[in-house]
Amino acid sequence: MEQTFIMIKPDGVQRGLVGEIISRFEKKGFYLKGLKMVSVERSFAEKHYADLSAKPFFAGLVEYIISGPVVAMVWAGKNIVVTGRKIIGATNPADSAPGTIRGDLAIEIGRNVIHGSDSIESASKEIALWFPEGVAEWQSNLHPWIYE
Ligand code: DAT
Ligand code: MG
Predict the structure, then answer these.
(1) Is 142 a domain residue?
(2) The one catalytic residue among 24, 33, 48, 115
């Protein structure tokens, strides 16, 4: 089953949005496969966002991600990479549709609460980076009530 890497950023943790965000993925029918709170080292944040290292906002982005603990997760489900991005909403909360996490819970691009992998390839890279120990293998007994 397809997997993605989801991270609740430091603002989401500080604002007490962890339960709300997890709940949205759970209620959709996705399966939580890995979960941990992490105080991210600068070099690790730089590695996670390596593709953006040339961007003018890179330094600020790294400062933001290391400004407090994050909640790192692996979620699984059919088409979860694309659907997860839809649940999260557009990068800039000013453009995120109401009903999405960023559309409902955030205002500024530099405090947009959550990260989600943008492709199956980056999902597998990010899962390997954040969860080298592996994730839980399980499937809900409700599976036949979620999938036909
Ligand atoms: P996303 O998080 O939607 O995948 P991204 O990978 O392009 O977006 O960028 C990673 C993060 O960097 C994003 O969540 C917020 C920040 N960011 C992106 N574009 C930005 C910009 N133009 N100005 C400031 N921060 C930006
Ligand atoms: Mg991205």
Answers:
(1) no
(2) 115
Note the pLDDT tens digit of each residue in 95-135.
999 999 999 999 999 999 999 999 999 999 999 999 999 99
CATH of the domain at 60: 3.30.70.141
Q: Are 18 and 12 in contact (CB under 8 A)?
A: yes
Kindly report the pTM of this predicted structure.
0.98
| Structural domain boundaries, residue 81 | 3-136
- Whether residue 115 lies in the annotated active site: yes
> Is 24 labeled as ligand-binding?
no
The closest residue, in CA terms, to atom 11 on ligand 1 is 61
> Nearest residue CA, atom 5 of ligand 1?
91
The answer to whether residue 146 is domain-embedded is no
Does residue 79 lie within any of the structural domains?
yes
